[in-house]
Amino acid sequence: MSDTCIGFDDTFFYVKKKKIPLQFVLAIRLTESTGNKDIPYWKIAYTPGFDESNRSVRILPNVYNDRFERFIKSVERVNPQAETDYYHFTILPGGMPKTTWAPRDSYC
């Protein structure tokens, strides 16, 4: 894993060679990038440890699989207080992937 690699599984969020337990993920929010308002960048806020200040990274999830949706659901399961926006992945007839996303206040 390189210094800039971001990853996740059902237990940890990986950033810069650190394993962050999912309960330390504070928010997964939809965000905009200047000049790219229709591209769904996501900001993940987390606490690296009990004594450390909050940090965040911005990512553009892979739209060809459901890993990011599973990551959000795993965070919601272990940390119900985490702020999350809506993200859904599906495969359309014919095998084309489709993702949908929305800010929290537009789907609650």
How is this structure best described in words?
By secondary structure, the chain is mainly β. It has one domain (6-107). The chain contains two helices and nine strands; from the N terminus they run ββββββαβββα. It has helices spanning 67-78, 104-107; strands at residues 6-8, 12-15, 18-21, 25-33, 36-46, 55-59, 83-84, 86-91, 97-102. It has a four-stranded mixed β-sheet, with helices on one face. A three-stranded antiparallel β-sheet has the order 1-2-3. Strands 8-9 form a two-stranded antiparallel sheet. The model has no long low-confidence stretch (mean pLDDT 86).
The helix-and-strand class reads mainly beta
Mean pLDDT: 86
The major beta sheet can be summarized as:
4 strands, mixed
- Low-pLDDT runs of 5+ residues are none
Number of domains: 1
Number of contiguous helices: 2
| Amino-to-carboxy terminus distance | 37 Å
Strand order, sheet with most strands: 6-5-4-7
The helical percent reads: 10-25%
Strand content is: over 45%
Give the overall shape.
globular
Number of strands: 9
Listing every helix as H and every strand as E from the N terminus to the C terminus, the arrangement reads EEEEEEHEEEH
Overall radius of gyration: 14 Å
